[in-house]
UniProtKB/TrEMBL annotation:
GO terms for biological process: methylglyoxal catabolic process to D-lactate via S-lactoyl-glutathione; proteolysis. It comes from Acetobacter pasteurianus NBRC 3278. This is Protease/amidase. Residues 32-254 form the DJ-1/PfpI domain. One of its GO terms (molecular function) is glyoxalase III activity. Pfam families: DJ-1_PfpI. PANTHER family: DJ-1_PFPI DOMAIN-CONTAINING PROTEIN (PTHR48094:SF22), PROTEIN/NUCLEIC ACID DEGLYCASE DJ-1-RELATED (PTHR48094).
Amino acid sequence: MKRAHILIYTSSATKIPLVGGGTHDVGIFLGELVEPIEPLIRAGHLVEFVSPDGKGCVIDPASYRITNWGLSRSRMEHARNFFETTFQELGVGNPVKLSDILADKTRLNSYDVVFIPGGHAPMTDVLHKDWLVSDEYNDQTGELLLHFHKNNKITSAICHGSAALGAAPQVNGKWIYADYNMTCVSMAAEWLTEDIPFFNIGGHMPDYPVRILKRLGGKVHTKMLGRSNVVEDRELITGQDPYSAKELGEKLMKKIEVRQNF
């Protein structure tokens, strides 16, 4: 069996800025990292981790809310264990620095898939260079995405991770994902986490994935809370939120099998 080489692009950010000042502690959502990737690892595909600064990700404590797991504690504990064992053994805590991969074209060419997990964290250092400092987008993320786009390689993201697509450049005056169908965390979910006391993050973000992607020309499709939503268009496959993580893993597996002619 031919094995795909999958690059998992994680954020190492721990805070997002809030409108009016202040920050909120964030990280990567456990389910949105583990559930799409676990079946690929079990199938024998190769994974490698990369981050903007070469530092490991932090798991957002909010991702341990049982509501993110279909009320299944066993499902959550399985993901936690897989992260703490298999993912650690594979190097999630010691990722490669993105600039090192971009500087090595042979290495860059070796990857078949790039996957960007969710949680609020990617908004700070994967989409932006440093959202705590400015709104400037991360041009290295853009360079990585352009490589996968130009070479028709699978690009996948989920929830707030999908916002990272906004860092992709324009070619001939047009964003490379303009008119692509895609999904990301819904505005309903954003309002829930920002305005409902039980979830309240203490303020509002300066911008949101849905608005970013739509401004650039993406066709963003979201569903009601609690329903899985995976959208596939050409080389791109995206999931809406934690409820979509398992389906994203299943469809990503099928997409890899078709592309790799297994």
